[in-house]
Amino acid sequence: MNDEFLNDPKRWFNEANLLKGIADDIYSRFRKEMHDGEPGWAMVHNVFGSELENIGPYGLIGPYKMTIGLAIENMAKGMLIRLNGKFDINRWAITKKGHDLKYLIGDELNLSLSIVEGDVLNDLSAYVEWAGRYPAPKNPKRLQDLLPKGHSWAFRLFDTEDMAHTENLYLRLQSEQKSLK
After folding, report:
1. Quick one: which of 65, 64, 16, 24 has its CA closest to 177?
2. For the whole prediction, is pTM greater than 0.90?
């Protein structure tokens, strides 16, 4: 039964759409709280120690990015299952690329990505792997990968352009999956 579920692309697409709906709800809450005059404070994480301020609605950014990243991951994996006929867990486990959205979409699905789309997918991958769930990664280099070059502080701020790119990527994947046989 487990293989039946894992090998059914429709189940992956359904999970992707459920996660997308949850991400949309989180984003709506973020927008509402920002609009209601509660600016909060950006969460500031110092690489060499940490201090958390009242993060207000900015605390929703990590869960949003993790959830939309999982939606994109499930959509991509459903597409790969439809193309390959089965869920290949060994391939993704061995390569450790199962949460690498740029790899899944650009290399595995062979879809062209702009530099900005690749950057957005790399960011979302980090939130799926650790940044949406944990205060720090197991490997300190992963934290450095999220920081702007030359900075020791990470501001988990929300870029609305990233949101637009993320939304467009999801819609593009939905369109591509519908064209698969």
Report:
1. 16
2. no
Alpha helices in the chain (DSSP H): 2-6, 9-35, 61-84, 89-95, 101-102, 115-126, 140-146, 160-179
> Can you read off the two tokens belonging to residue 110?
């062979």
Question: 154 pLDDT exceeds 80?
Answer: no
Handedness of CA 5, 9, 10, 14 (dihedral sign): positive
Question: β-strand 44-46 against 153-155: which pairing, if any?
Answer: antiparallel
Count CB-CB contacts under 10 A for residue 49: 6
Whether 106 has a pLDDT exceeding 70, the answer reads yes
**117 near 172, Cβ under 8 Å?**
no
